[in-house]
Structures are given as structure tokens and as C-alpha cells.
């Protein structure tokens, strides 16, 4: 059955207020609720509830009732989310990708795994992160280097997508990992990938925009923070990211085009993080920074 997103368009402040109201309406029920930035310059945001098609009418009425007083003119729009299987089928031909000792492969390529590989099984789906993109591969290579050289007792994967990087960290070392994404669909896909890779515990997955969740304080500060979420949001979260880093900790940033490297580095120098190493892949850079 199809999944539906019901959403209301507002400003950042309005979307946050709607999110609070919807959290009261749906409480502990199993609905994913999130806010997403659509256009930073024009301050356009969406507050969304994800549900199955047969629940649509009842959920729509509850949303309307919940926000009616504070937002009398709000329009509730809908989007049908495409089925995961359809996308997966169209991308079935993707070849396994090597990055350091990691081999990221689809379920159809299990026989390609060699003895010394650290295999991560990810089928192409609705979440970003099959290993084919230069940013994911750069992060995997950097994770291996950093975790070999430094003591890492816990880690944060901000913008986890398919969960590939959190799975990589956990496969390298038996440590606790917090993995978050602004997109509840990605979080659901990541949960499935964590299970499929035989990881029964140790990875906590949460839907959260930026650092907006109590989970960060609860699980942090972190010895390693990985964030592959594009240059602009990376620059925006620099102060919060630095605040959640343990003394002497490492940061791996990606989603940065080569030409944006200096802007991102200067934002992070401003929060007392210094450059250690850069990996270049297909026009994208992955950067390792440290406290000090
Ligand atoms: C480029 S993908 C990276 C996925 C995976 N970590 C990888 O390396 O392949 C970026 C992910 O970050 C998420 N994202 C973007 N902005 C975010 C934000 N402000 N807070 C949390 N997640 C965010 C997106 O939904 C997307 O899943």
C-alpha cells in the first residue's frame, strides 16, 4: 500500500510550531512527523506527517483540528511517496563499490565479497548512500583512516541516509553510534539496512533536523562526528557540531564541492577545528578536522 505525506507549508518558526502541535496530537503513535527546509532564502519550510494511504482521511482531520486555532488559513497538501521496490528494481544493476577495506554491495552481489573485505549490504532505495557517490566513498575511506589512527569510543552520523556510514563505523569497531536524518523515510530505510547487516544493537536511529533532538545530548559528546549533508547546512551547524564534539575528537565532513572547500574550512576554523586531511573524489571533497 502507498505511503502518503500530508504537509503544511509555512516559515521556519511556523513549521516548528506546527511540529509541536502535531506532536501533541499524535503523541506516542507510530507516525513520523518532521519539518523540512524547502527554500532557505525565502524562509519556506514544510511540516509533514507520514502515514499509510488507508489512514489518510482520519489523519487529515486530526491535523486540521490540531492546528486550526493557531493556523486558521493553513492548507494541508499531500504527496504520494513512491514504493521502495520500484526504485530498487530500476537500480539493481549497480556494481559493488570499494572504499578502503569496505565493499558496499547490493544483495545480488553477495558472492563478490572477499575474505578480508568489510562488507556492507545496501540495496539502492529511497535513501541516499549506496557507496557509488564520491561523498559516501570518501567518507568510508576517511572513517577507516581516522578509526585506525585514533581512539574512537562513540560516533555520530548526521544525515545518515541509507545508514551506510553508521554501519561502517559499527562494523569496524563495537562502539555506540547515533545516526540521524531529517527525513523519516531515510531513517526507516536505515533501520532496515542496519538489521540486514546483522547489527542487532549499538546503532540508535532518530529523525531530527540538524541537532534538534534530545538524543544528541544524551548520547554525546562524540569522539567522531561524520556529516555528509552539503556545504551550506554544514556551515550552518558548525557551532552546534563543535559543541557536541568530545575534547580531541575528530570530524569528517562531506557533501562539499571542491570549490566550496575553503568556505567550509573557514566556518570550522571559526569554531576551533583544524584541517587534518582532504580526500578528493569525482569533484567532491571529504575533510577530516580535529579539535585544537
Ligand atoms: C548526501 S546524503 C548522505 C547519506 C549517507 N550519510 C552517505 O554518506 O551516503 C545526505 C543526507 O542528509 C540528510 N540531511 C540533509 N540535511 C539534513 C539536516 N539538516 N539534518 C539532518 N539530516 C539532513 C538528507 O535527508 C540525506 O539523507
From TrEMBL:
Database matches in CDD domains: AdoMet_MTases (cd02440)
Residues annotated for S-adenosyl-L-methionine binding in this entry: 136, 159, 181, 228
Gene Ontology CC: ribosome
Molecular function (Gene Ontology), one example: methyltransferase activity
Pfam families: PrmA (PF06325)
E.C. numbers: 2.1.1.-
Subcellular location: Cytoplasm
Biological process, per Gene Ontology: methylation
Reaction(s) catalysed (UniProt annotation): L-lysyl-[protein] + 3 S-adenosyl-L-methionine = N(6),N(6),N(6)-trimethyl-L-lysyl-[protein] + 3 S-adenosyl-L-homocysteine + 3 H(+)
Record keywords: Cytoplasm, Methyltransferase, Ribonucleoprotein, Ribosomal protein, S-adenosyl-L-methionine, Transferase
Cross-referenced InterPro entries: Ribosomal_L11_MeTrfase_PrmA (IPR050078), Ribosomal_PrmA_MeTrfase (IPR004498), SAM-dependent_MTases_sf (IPR029063)
EC supergroup of this enzyme: transferase
Protein task: Methylates ribosomal protein L11.
NCBIfam families: PRK00517.2-1
Record-linked PANTHER family: ELECTRON TRANSFER FLAVOPROTEIN BETA SUBUNIT LYSINE METHYLTRANSFERASE
Family: Belongs to the methyltransferase superfamily. PrmA family.
Record's protein name: Ribosomal protein L11 methyltransferase
Organism: Neorhizobium petrolearium
